[in-house]
Amino acid sequence: MKRLGEGRFYLVREDVLTDSMLKTIEVKKLLASGKASTIQEATKSIGLSRSAFYKYRDTVFPFESVARERILTIFIQLEDQKGSLATLLGIVTEARCNVLTIHQTIPVQGRANVTLSLDVTAMEMQVERFIQQLQSPEFVESATIISSGAL
Description:
Number of helices: 6
Helix content: 25-40%
CATH class of the largest domain: Alpha Beta
Order of helices and strands: HHHHEHEEHE
Oligomer: single chain
Low-confidence stretches: 1-5
Strand order of the largest sheet: 2-3-1-4
Largest sheet: 4 strands, antiparallel
Distance between the termini: 31 Å
Radius of gyration: 19 Å
């Protein structure tokens, strides 16, 4: 008996996928982007039954989510405030990233720089959304990807 995730994988053109498979991908995008907060809400807005979503959710993936880079290095400029690094690491944890390295400069004139190297293999959201979340605290002036690559 095969377990979930076992078996062969194939790369197929979008036009040969069933409508339910394509809608499953759209539902996953809505959930990852935060445009829908529940599976019920996302499937209803796309016009897909929840049972069809559950049937395909672990078997159909956009190519970029399978081929995406696994290491992301981000440069963050921030105001030096108590707990700011802890807040950023909370965002990293919620995104299911694994911290590989952290470098924080000594604050000068109330400003500090943080460079994070992250293993993003388990991250389910789009990188753009993750960067937006890192930029959301008031103390963050900027968050920029400086490199990405495979492990």
